[in-house]
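Lab notebook, page 48
Experiment: co-folding of the full assembly
Goal: obtain a model of how the components sit together before planning crosslinking
Operator: M.T.
Materials (sequences as entered):
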Amino acid sequence: MKTPASKSADQGKGVVLLEDGATILHERVFLRLLQYPSGISVLERALEQDDGMRLVQIYALDGVSDLHDFATADPYYDALEVAYDAVQARYPAAVSEGDKRAWSGGEPGRLIDCVGDIARCRDQGELTGHVRRIIRAMGADQWTYQSISSDERAGAIEHRYLIGCAPGWIQRYLRDKRFMADPFVEYARRNVTPVTGSMIGLADEAPRLAADARRYGVNSQMVVPVHAPASEVIGLLHVSHRRDPEQGGETRLWSSRVLFGALAGQLLGWQLTTIRRMAVESFELDPSELEVLRVLCAGGYAHNVADMLRTSVRRVHRVVYPRICDKMRVSRIDEARKLAVTYGLIELRQGDGSISK
Amino acid sequence: MVAVLSDNGYLLSRRVGDEPASPTGPPVSAYRDMARAEQGAFADPVDHVRRIVAYRHLKQYPVAVIAGLDEQDVFAGWRRTRTIYFAMGSVVTILLLIGTVAAMFFMRQLIHSRAQMQRLSETDSLTGLPNRHWLTLTLRQRLLENASIGCLAVVYIDLDNFKKINDSLGHKAGDQLLQKVASRLRAAVGKKHVVARIGGDEFVILVEGNDAAARAHAVACDVIDAFELAFGLRGNSWTVRVSIGIAVHTGREDTEFDLLTHADLAMYAAKADSKAAGLSRQCPYTNELSEQAKRETERYQELQYALNHGELQVAYQPVMLLATGEIASVEALVRWNHPQRGVVPATDFLAFAESTGLIVPIGDFVLEQVCRQLCEWQEAHARTPTVSVNVSSVQLASEHLVGSVRHLLTDYMIEPGSLQFEVTEAAFFDDPTLMGCRLESLRELGVKIVLDDFGEGRSSLAHLWRFTVDGVKVHQSLTRGIPDDKVAIATLRSLIELTDALDLTLGVKGVESQRQADWLARFERVQVQGFYFSKPLADANVAARMTP
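Observation: model returned without errors.
Model output:
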């Protein structure tokens, strides 16, 4: 299952230094060590279940001890020991290969500007490092950014976690599938305003979750949910402070809620842009095809498309639509339109540098 | 070469080696330089070979003779020798150079290896922290500087429940936990102080600077704070408690081992405290701790001496059957005949013996004494009472107990049913499964088991059915309530009914008055024990009260 590292890397894409995994009963776990052009190594752990659930953890490594912490906290460590050893053997080389300038930045000056800078992060390694510094400056100790997306066609749900907390805590959280009954996640599905643990009644609603969190210094908690219009992706920025709520931990988090909200929005935006870029690359749609989809999404019909392309309606039905459906691997143009909405393709404009091929 | 020149300037004859003489040649002026110098090295004008020549003019004849030797021939030997010496010199020089370079290389390797070995010898391979060897060397060096008095402290850290984690998750996870602990300690104390690992789960932080006591206290607080957070291992959260002892260098006479011993003593004091509270604790060293340790050592040695030199004796307290007034059984009680302090009751030393592990040899001694006595009584009397022996949880945990009892029963040929073990409930708290197995094994030998001191502490009726026992002995705190305390009476009545129903024997300890005996007399099956009936007796006195 181990694959050799690919040496070529595009802008924003990491070089996969190592990929390995194991199957444990009905679950498959994959580990990938990625090296980004920003010089940061990221360990990606993905757990796939038979029911279509996929849990992805993204952990930016800042040293061998980080890797050790993450590995030993893994509930499947025994099955993945060889894989972790291989990652550990490859990691120091990865560190020496990459330049670490991205980590050496000072404390963020104007926080809101720094939040805005997130859009310029080239990869998730750089993103994690940047978010880590911003959140520390905003007064939180630990954080995670969770995004939940679902693919109705494939019947798959993906939970993606950008980790800025103790690895032991997130491993425990995922091992026990705490997200299934996490009041914060339930709240985030229906709301977009920040909420603290006390406001949501976390200690009463999920006492075990709260008690487990406290063992890792997650005493005061706040979650900032974000939703993307025209997309089913939900984002949750979870920040915490070591102080108890009674000692002002939550107050401290709450006072920065606006900034945290902006940060969560930026994180979701960054994620959607990445998804969009990947979708465009994956579907290989050209600008005119994107324009066709945009017309359809705006409520247009085949004759509108024909007018736009200065061709006949017959040609639209017999050539243009089948080509789009073929590229997007769907059978009907309406499905292609829905997929374009899901991946945010219709927001792209011709000549947009981020998507033009 | 030999040449003859005429005075009128002609070369008359010239001969070189075996070549034929050559009468012709250049004019004599060509040999002018030779003639003028009379001798020297010159290039021959005929063949241009450089020769060393001598010139002589023959006075009687008008001729002169020139004799010359080829310079090449003359110096050939010298040149050969010079070449050989040069070659030898070159070889020797090259060899010397190679040797020097090799020596320098090996020296460098040696220095590197030595540094590496020193680093290895001073580093703990698991955590990468300095080890005990480094710590003792460093402490010794610091203690030699008198300036370290009051400015050097040792913070001794021991993990409280490490063994449990090691046993639960295995040694690999245990090692990983130790690595995490080391990492967390380093993060907690920063670069200001050095952390060393000196044993399995023991770490030391070296604190230096003015007012080391206050600094060490602050460091200990930081460590305790850091350990409030759980460690994630295999998807589980483990909270590790720490016991911290602090020792400050205060005396000029202190050695590094004294300092570590002091910190260790303080750590044990903190551990005793933290075990009770279930929290991390720190404790500074005081002289009192050393004195207490000294007292305990002396006491230990004294008790060991008593055991080895026959100062321990076994007495037997009769347990009466109220219905018949006969001795139902006797309870073996150990006594210490101290040469200075007289008879020391078991309550004064058994708890200490249990905490130090001496209870095992003491228990073995009592058991052997009892078996020997039973053997004697069985030979002398037709009916002998059952003898009860108290067995502590430490003894019960020992895997040798069952084998030892089996051997004693065989060696002394005593009926297993005449031996009875009294076990307190506290024995079941630590490892109920193991204790249950041990009791079952003893019962299989035919030995009876009685639950002692029932009714005190965490008495659980479940123990009556979970661990198959033959009887129950009620704690004397219940007996004290007879006949006035309604609760005590009601409890006793219920217990009597319960034991009747379960067909268990019921013993009541601590009967000390007529009133208590009268009240208990209504229950025929109850066995009673106490000073009212008899104090503990020597074996001879017990024998006297037995039926011959």
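Interpretation: The radius of gyration of chain B is 51 Å.
Next step: discuss with group before ordering constructs.
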